[in-house]
Amino acid sequence: MSKSKTDAAKSRTAVGKPGAGTGSTTRADRDRTTGGITITRWNLGLSLTIALTVMAGAFSLLWERTNALHDTQIQLVSRLSGLEARVSGLESEVRELRLEMRDLREEVRSDINVLREEVRSDINDLREEMRAGMQELADLIRARETPGAGAE
User: Fold this and answer.
1) Are 121 and 114 within 8 A, CB to CB?
2) Is 29:18 a contact under the CB 8 Å cutoff?
3) 0.85 exceeded by the pTM?
């Protein structure tokens, strides 16, 4: 750093006591003294260096966190694109399954209708057979009763 006139004057005075060598305080010395704390270029430089170091550390941490977040975002996007592909594949499979289910329902309904008609036909045939069997049984019963009544 370059030395100013006040730094040269300070080097002749006692450190930390402005105007100690001359007995008077200059305006620059009064401005640099605040609440009993003497602010010199060295103190100011040290304070700024510490502040900049803290800021650089904070910026480094922030940068690291931002990079980690960016990496996480990239992973999430890649996983999301994979999930989107899977979902679209599942959607097409579901559509196919729905079509197959609809076709199966139609086949089952038609098969049920065919079976109903067959059962109805079989039931009607059985009814006719049963009527015929009952008629024969009735005829046999009458035939038994009639000769026995005539024998007495």
Assistant:
1) no
2) yes
3) no
The token pair that represents 52 in the structure block:
């900049």
CA 60/CA 120 separation, integer angstroms: 87
With left for phi above 0 and alpha for psi between -120 and 50, is residue 103 left, alpha or beta?
A: alpha
The Cα-based distances of 70 to 57, 63, 67, 73 in angstroms read 20, 10, 5, 5
Task: Find the angle CA(134)-CA(137)-CA(143) to the nearest 5 degrees.
Answer: 140
Dig out the tokens for 151 from the structure.
């024998």
123, containing H or E segment: helix 41-151
Mean residue pLDDT of the chain comes to: 83
